[in-house]
Write a structure and sequence with these properties.
The chain is mainly alpha-helical. It has helices spanning about 30-45, 50-65, 70-80.
Length: about 90
């Protein structure tokens, strides 16, 4: 049994002869500018991206420091598989 209101096909016009699909464009430029301004305001004037990156590097050094032999092998395997990024000389920090 056929449906009462079949879904229009993009290739077939409806009863009025108009295309079944309509182009719909939204310009989000102003919303994106507003969003970026709000992010920068939330970060505040003291935000220093270089300091943040250096802090992240120090945290990774601490995270992967003092590994025992088995942990170091696992770390090396994860780096070789591309799961973790290579750091420094390719070894976890001592």
């Amino acid at each position: 049994m056929a449906p009462h209101d079949p879904t229009p096909s993009p290739d077939q016009p409806d009863a009025s002869g108009a295309s079944a699909l309509v182009d719909f464009d939204v310009d989000l430029t102003s919303q994106e500018v507003l969003r970026r301004a709000q992010v920068m305001e939330a970060l505040g004037p003291d935000w220093n991206p270089v300091e943040v990156l250096l802090g992240e590097e120090a945290a990774y050094d601490l995270l992967y420091s003092g590994l025992d032999a088995q942990q170091q092998r696992l770390y090396d395997d994860l780096v070789a598989a591309g799961v973790l990024p290579a750091r420094g000389d390719g070894r976890a920090a001592a």
